[in-house]
């Protein structure tokens, strides 16, 4: 009996082959999941993962034979997964990458990699522990000190990701006596973090200061008010009106929280972020950000702000308390990235110059680029099909960009999002603009 069951479970393979759970409940679950997956495909919102065989950088090699055959590369990029007719077409040898958050090009910087290797050798693969039991090393404390210094705040606390930092702050800080006021387009992790807390919740219209003021007036009845906003919004490349937000916060005695994932390291004269760019470093109380984008791109996130807040998070914030410490190699990467930025703002300035080059050349070519001065450059096309077809045709020309349409962005606002990095050369930028111009003309986006 037992042997029979085991044989059924192992059907179709030996050691290492997947085992399907048996029983009616498991079969029912499988049917339900398959139907849900079919719905996602049917809705056209299926997300394919691209398989990259090289380091992150402006030039990529793709898995499956790399850059040669369209069939392998196209499938690796999730295009036409079932369409063999395209297998005979070919892609250019090198893929020029314009869709990573590698804003400063530090993901594959030799010094960042060396720092990771050194940390790995000296401090090991990982801590096998949460921070407060047996998981804090000198490099974790050093990195927290460096982050606080970089942002000119009192203290900082590390998390496994910024998603965790956002998931862990609101519940630890706010009670049913308090209120949180959140921009309607804030990142999913802020929305989830706010869901977890028991404060009174207000959602104001995207960057609408009149609406925020009305909500702040209503929230006066609560003990404490916290305004929460992304510093830079990743779909539109637009920057929160922090000066006005801080003025309102002052008027209505509120605190300001910003998520700086798409700003830390490169916005503002010294790359400190949106608060530096808009001259309100002393008005923003709490900053959450990531180590997984401009700061080396490995992983990790943090909160930086007043020391008692950081002390409280170490006692109360659940993603911090109940999740493993950041691995030393990851800490090494971020720490070196910050050293490079504390030394000089040359990398950030180089990225800003390339952003300017792309935005001005694309505008001159007749495209509308959303946002202002930000390396997220959404090429606005409106029509979802046009965005998909153009992104595909850009890839045929060896330029890797991604089209976004509803429900990721509002209906009628489909776009191709281009992200500029300090390690793109001027020639890379020009090649991208030329390809957009050709493809735009071909598909009627340009006259
Ligand atoms: N906040 C914003 C605005 C983001 O764009 C992201 C990542 O996409 C996150 C938070 C989450 O950051 P992490 O990747 O460190 O979890």
TrEMBL record:
Domain (Aminotransferase class I/classII large) ranges: 95-436
Pfam families found in the cross-reference section: Aminotran_1_2
Keyword field contains Transferase: yes
UniProt KW keywords: Acyltransferase, Ligase, Pyridoxal phosphate, Transferase, Transit peptide
Top enzyme category: transferase
A GO term for molecular function: pyridoxal phosphate binding
EC number: 2.3.1.29
GO terms for cellular component: cytosol; mitochondrial matrix
Swiss-Prot/TrEMBL catalytic activity: glycine + acetyl-CoA = (2S)-2-amino-3-oxobutanoate + CoA
GO biological process: L-threonine catabolic process
Required co-factors: pyridoxal 5'-phosphate
CDD domains: KBL_like
InterPro entries, alphabetized: 2am3keto_CoA_ligase (IPR011282), Aminotrans_II_pyridoxalP_BS (IPR001917), Aminotransferase_I/II_large (IPR004839), AON_synthase_class-II (IPR050087), PyrdxlP-dep_Trfase (IPR015424), PyrdxlP-dep_Trfase_major (IPR015421), PyrdxlP-dep_Trfase_small (IPR015422)
Keyword match Ligase: yes
Family in the record: Belongs to the class-II pyridoxal-phosphate-dependent aminotransferase family.
Name by which UniProt lists this protein: 2-amino-3-ketobutyrate coenzyme A ligase, mitochondrial
Organism encoding this protein: Eudyptes chrysocome
């Amino acid at each position: 009996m037992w042997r029979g069951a085991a044989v059924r479970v192992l059907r179709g393979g030996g050691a290492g082959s997947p085992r399907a759970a048996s029983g009616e409940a498991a079969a029912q679950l499988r049917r339900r999941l398959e139907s849900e997956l079919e719905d996602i495909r049917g809705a056209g919102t299926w997300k394919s993962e691209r398989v990259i065989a090289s380091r992150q950088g402006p030039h990529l090699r793709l898995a499956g034979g790399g850059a040669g055959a369209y069939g392998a590369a196209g499938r690796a990029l999730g295009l036409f997964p079932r369409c063999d007719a395209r297998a005979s077409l070919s892609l250019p040898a090198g893929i020029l990458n314009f869709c990573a958050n590698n804003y400063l090009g530090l993901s594959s910087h030799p010094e960042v990699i060396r720092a990771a290797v050194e940390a790995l050798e000296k401090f090991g693969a990982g801590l096998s522990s949460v921070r407060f039991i047996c998981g804090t090393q000198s490099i974790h404390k050093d990195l927290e000190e460096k982050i606080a210094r970089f942002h000119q705040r009192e203290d900082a606390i590390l998390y496994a990701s910024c998603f965790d930092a956002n998931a862990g702050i609101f519940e630890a800080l706010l009670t049913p006596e308090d209120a949180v006021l959140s921009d309607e387009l804030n990142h999913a992790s802020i929305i989830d973090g706010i869901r977890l807390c028991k404060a009174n919740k207000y959602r104001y219209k995207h960057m609408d200061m009149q609406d925020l003021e009305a909500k702040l007036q209503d929230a006066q009845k609560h003990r404490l008010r916290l305004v929460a906003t992304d510093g830079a919004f990743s779909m539109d490349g637009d920057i929160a009106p922090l000066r006005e937000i801080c003025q309102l916060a002052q008027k209505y005695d509120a605190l300001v929280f910003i998520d700086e994932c798409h700003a830390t390291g490169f916005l503002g004269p010294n790359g400190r972020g949106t608060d530096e760019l808009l001259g309100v470093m002393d008005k923003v109380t709490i900053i959450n950000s990531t180590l997984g984008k401009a700061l080396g791109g490995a992983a990790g996130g943090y909160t930086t702000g007043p020391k008692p807040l950081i002390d409280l998070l170490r006692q109360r914030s659940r993603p911090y308390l109940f999740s493993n410490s950041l691995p030393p190699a990851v800490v090494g990467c971020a720490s070196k990235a910050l050293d490079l930025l504390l030394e000089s703002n040359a990398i950030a300035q180089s990225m800003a110059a390339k952003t300017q080059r792309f935005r001005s050349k694309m505008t001159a070519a007749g495209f509308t680029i959303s946002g202002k001065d930000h390396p997220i450059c959404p090429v606005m096309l409106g029509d979802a099909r046009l965005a998909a077809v153009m992104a595909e045709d850009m890839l045929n020309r060896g330029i890797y960009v991604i089209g976004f349409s509803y429900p990721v962005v509002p209906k009628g606002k489909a776009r191709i999002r281009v992200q500029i990095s300090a390690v793109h050369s001027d020639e890379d930028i020009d090649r991208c603009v030329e390809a957009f111009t050709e493809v735009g003309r071909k598909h009627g986006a340009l006259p």
